[in-house]
Amino acid sequence: MAPAASVQPIPAELSAGAAPAIGVAGISSWLSLTWKTNLQEGERVLVLGATGSVRQTVVQAAKVLGAGRLVAAGRNAAVLDMLKNRGADEVVRLDGDHQAALREASQGGFDLVVDMLYSAPMVATLPTIRPGGRLVNVGMRAGRNVEVSGTVLKGRDLLTYAANLPSAELRQEAYARLAEHVVASDITPEFEHLPLEQVAEAWKRQGTSPNTKLVLVP
Asked: Is the pLDDT of residue 159 over 90?
């Protein structure tokens, strides 16, 4: 039996596919932008590693919350192209000299970076943040160890988000807000239905980062 604090009321208008698709991934996206970093309207935002399922929701949530200039960076060209239609003002491929491309895309320095990668990609992004700006790390797809120059970090805030830190009330409120925006078509979660008997296949696909939520249907 699931703990009561982990149960989320689901609006009747929310589809059976979207409801789980905005669960942990959606709540982490919303709270990393609100509770953890207090995104302000008009701020310049970068989502680093934007092509996974959590990151795609971050991009859309940042736009809903009022990001002034929103840049999505990742390796999957097809997903980046899709994000242009989901709120991203510009996309940057993480290949070659992407630090220079990100600096140019920021148009003066990012106010906030939501980092899903950690390790070397995160470090390379720090100089593109304006003095007084902040970075919040949510994921570690690129590695779990990093060496950061104190000189580069000086004047920039380095934050971290973990799904177990917000209270149950905060998580429930975040889910309710997300559900409202999904029902209103402001946020479109990417998901794919799979029959329950394909659970083994779903686990294998999940291990290859399929860039979509896999929803098992009994």
From this structure: yes
In this prediction the pTM is: 0.91
DSSP state of 126: G
Number of other residues whose CB lies within 10 A of the CB of residue 3 = 7
Distance from C-alpha of 64 to C-alpha of 69, rounded to nearest angstrom = 12
How far, in Å, CA of 183 to CA of 26, rounded? 14
Q: Which of 59, 56, 72 is nearest to 106 (CA)?
A: 72
Residue ranges of domains in the chain, CATH in brackets:
25-160 (3.90.180.10), 188-218 (no CATH)
Q: What is the pLDDT of residue 129?
A: 97
Tell me how long the chain is: 218
Helix (H) or strand (E) holding 123: helix 119-125
